[in-house]
Specification:
With 169 residues, the chain is an alpha+beta fold. The chain folds into two domains: 63 residues, no CATH class; 95 residues, Sandwich (Immunoglobulin-like), CATH 2.60.40.790. The protein is built from two helices and eight strands. The strands form two sheets. A four-stranded mixed beta sheet has the order 1-6-5-4. It has a four-stranded antiparallel beta sheet with strand order 2-3-8-7, with no helix packed on it. Helix 1 packs across helix 2. The longest helix is centred in the first third of the chain and has 22 residues.
Amino acid sequence: MVKPLNEQKLSHKVETRQAQSLTEELTQLRDNVMQRAYEIFCERPAEGAGPLDDWLAAERELVWQPLMTIAENDDGFVLEVAVPGLKASEIEVQSAEDEILVKSAACAAPPAGGILHVCELPRGKVFRTVRLPRKINRDKVSAELHDGLLKITVPAAPEAQPRKVPVAA
């Protein structure tokens, strides 16, 4: 009999070395999900779910995409990201020209002691990226964590103004 996914232990080794770039990190993440999806495929009965279900189950086990709210105002954007159980020191926020990336290698730990009857809180590495509809002022992005809610303030970049170019004679 196959154990429910939330009771299964990961049998593969998860890469722990520091990624050199976001592309390399995404490749490592994809490879880990692919390996876990294959393990799920091998463990399930033949009449069970299909390969897509295996892939999605592996993603849910290994990667947590937290819920997010994005609001826009005249000054830019405010993002609120639900990250219960994580500390500010465990969360990394990166800003690019028009993107925000929230990630964490830490996993929210289940409560210690006793018997765990229900666990609906997310577990796994956090990885969430969002592309914004305008360019942002990357140097002025700020983030604060209060009561499991990460608030990211993202000022919009000033609009480029047309410049009058003198014509030389």
